[in-house]
Amino acid sequence: MKRFLGATQALSGYMDVIAGTALVLIMLLTSLDVILRYLGYPIPGTYDLVSLGAAFVLGFAIPRTSWDKGHVTVDLLVERLPRKRVVFDIATRIIGLFFFSLLGWNLVKMGMSYLRTGDSTQTLAVPFYPVAFALGVCAFVECIVLLSDLMRTAGAGGCHE
């Protein structure tokens, strides 16, 4: 179990590096475009690249954020009931597993559709299918993170903050 948890943590960490790199590239591209636009030389396709990059930032950051418990939670009710909190934590992880597996599956189906139709961005004609597939992988990795969290929650009696 420790090996599985360690591998999951490492994978989510690598994905977070990809998200951070994409964010820095978006920032650099946007800054450069603003400067060059002011000088009369805008960068064609900036909107396309920033939009696709934002999808990468969002998708690739989710697993690590989930692993680190970096998301916002409102647990006013369950924090006063420790035994019910474990049940609540387990139930929410199972629901999350269901929704993220559904999301991943639908993103893969969407990627197949984009591959078949050749859909791409307007300005640079960057195909959409690799982004849909990558986001599908991110959703499936989030399922692994939720499964790991479920194992940690059940194994520690819910005490794994």
Give the topology string: H per helix, E per strand.
HHHH
Strand element count = 0
Question: Tell me about the biggest sheet?
Answer: none
Distance between the first and last residues' Cα: 18 Å
Approximate shape: elongated
**Could you say how many structural domains there are in total?**
1
Rg, rounded, reads: 19 Å
* Beta-strand content estimate: under 5%
Mean pLDDT: 92
Given helix and strand content, the structural type is mainly alpha
| Structure annotation, total helices | 4
Instruction: Give unreliable regions as ranges.
Output: none
Helical fraction equals over 70%
Structure description:
This protein has 161 residues and is mainly α. It has one domain. Helices cover 76% and strands 0% of the residues. The longest helix has 37 residues. It starts with a helix and ends in a 6-residue tail after the last helix.
Summarize the helices and strands and which ones pair or pack.
Layout: H1 2-38, H2 46-67, H3 82-117, H4 129-155
Helix pairs in contact: 1-2, 1-4, 2-4, 3-4
In short:
It is built from 4 helices and no strands. The chain is mainly α.
Provide key terms for this protein.
mainly alpha, elongated
